[in-house]
Amino acid sequence: MQNESQKRSPGSIRILCEEAPNYGVTAEQCLEGTGLVTFDLYQNEATVTLGQEVSAIANFIKYAPGRPGMGIEIGRRYRPEVFGIWGYAILSSPTVRAGLKTAMDFANLSFLIARLRLNELQDPPVLNLDISGLPKSVEGFVLERHLTVISNFTSQFLPKFSLSKVTFETTLDDPKIAEAIKSMLGVNVKLGCDKNAIVLSNKLLDLPLPQHNPATMESCLRQCRSLLNLEDSDVPEMTAQVREATLLEMNNDPTIVSIASKLGTSERTLRRRLAQEGTSFRKIHTEAKLAIGHELLSTAGLDVSTVAWRTGYSEPSSFVRAFTKKYGYSPGSLKTSSRYGEKS
User: Going from the N-terminus, what domains does the chain have, and what CATH number goes with each?
Assistant: First the structure.
């Protein structure tokens, strides 16, 4: 699952507490041991951790009548608009593939608990829902909720698509959960598998999204990047400063000497500080180049060779290897989506 200490909006716990009375559970029971009170969930600047949300879900399940489908029922409240800019960025993407990658790139801005991974090297491709580290008692509820969120998005950007064409492979082994997912969402379920994953197809991933708008998408992505930088409190101070300075200087081919000078320190001190934070200028520089390459492929409609050259790689093959290692899929897989992202 995502990082347990990850900060997020209290909106997801608020939805749970508002729905809980329908199951004979009070908001106070949901919040037992979380350090939260109901008042906290309605404060504009308030944040909670993923660990607190998981605890609230575990409390709800403890007091609620134990039956499959509750995650689906409550998950119907998680419409795309509930997710704010993250949801709008997905809806304005050019294709299903691009939408999924936006969802994964900015997952920290969402209410996701599972860590999403799109594996296009597998045939057919699958969207993995990694819930490792999650208490067994909440696995069914969390997976039901995630499937419902995906269903909610699908109904908006692919209203004619039937989820009966999709299969969910899961480590769960309860036939009643499979029956609830099938009857309430229309998704086929295969129990007792070695992973939790939605089996997709390249045809589905390539489908254009009707709400795609290049200008809207770029605006949403800028806001997502800005929010992520503001909320990414886990990044050490010097690493964050070097990353920001490097991105701003990419057109000038930044070096550790030039970045050290820009930050008012010496090359030796900068190397030492970054080493203490478990990274290096080379690593930060590479990640910055790949991030820019990803954006160019996604939105500018450039081919892989051109993007490799523009990001400082002398050989496209070196760019492809580094990109695939970083993102888990090849840069070529973004070519289709970038077609739809070209400006007129």
Answer: 1-66 (no CATH), 79-211 (no CATH), 214-340 (1.10.10.60)
Q: What's the predicted TM-score (pTM) here?
A: 0.67
Count of residues for the chain?
344
Separation of alpha carbons 164 and 127, rounded Å = 16
Cβ burial of 315 (10 Å; 0-12, 13-18, 19+) is exposed
Q: How far apart are CA 320 and CA 108, in angstroms?
A: 26
Rounded to whole angstroms, the Cα distance separating 199 from 203 reads 12
d(CA 283, CA 276): 14
3-state secondary structure of 168: strand
Question: How far is 170 from 129, CA to CA, in rounded Å?
Answer: 9
Residue 293 neighbours by CB distance under 10 Å: 25
**CB of 86 within 8 A of CB of 110?**
yes
The 3-state DSSP composition of the chain as helix, strand, coil percent (nearest 5) reads: 60, 5, 35
**How does pLDDT run along the chain (344 residues), one tens digit per residue?**
777 777 888 999 999 999 999 999 999 999 999 999 999 998 867 889 999 999 999 999 999 988 999 999 999 999 988 888 899 999 999 999 999 989 988 888 889 999 999 988 888 999 999 999 899 999 999 999 999 999 999 998 898 899 999 999 999 999 999 999 999 999 999 999 999 999 998 889 999 999 888 878 887 887 787 777 655 555 677 887 888 778 767 667 789 999 999 888 999 999 999 999 889 999 999 988 887 787 677 655 668 888 888 888 888 899 999 988 887 778 887 654 444 333 33
